[in-house]
Write a structure and sequence with these properties.
By secondary structure, the chain is of the alpha+beta class. It has 3 helices and 5 strands.
Length: 102
């Protein structure tokens, strides 16, 4: 199945270089800082629309001026190309909304 091959941190290193995301053992973790809570919610809301379109949903931690996204393909048991695609899209959305990588 396309998008189901598990990727290692060395497989994703060049793609994630310069982004908010880092590859842990089994997840991509991206943290963004926003101006306030409402901005953090707007970021999460915009990501939710894309996640629904892709049918691939991140785990999220939301706080005042802070959103953390954890991406993994549960059905594959690790990080796949679907997670990299979602990470790219989250990064673009965050940039458009003025959020910064932490």
């Amino acid at each position: 199945m396309e998008g189901r091959s598990i990727l290692s941190p060395s497989d994703t290193a060049s793609e994630l270089d310069g982004t908010a995301f880092r590859h842990t053992q089994s997840h991509l973790i991206g943290v963004f800082t926003t101006a306030d809570f409402a901005s953090a919610v707007r970021l999460l809301d915009a990501v939710a629309v894309v996640a629904d379109e892709l049918n691939h949903h991140p785990d999220v931690r939301l706080a005042w001026g802070h959103v953390e996204f954890a991406l993994t393909s549960h059905d594959a048991g690790g990080v796949t190309s679907r997670d990299l695609d979602l990470a790219r899209r989250i990064g673009a959305i965050a940039g458009d909304l003025g959020a910064t990588a932490t």
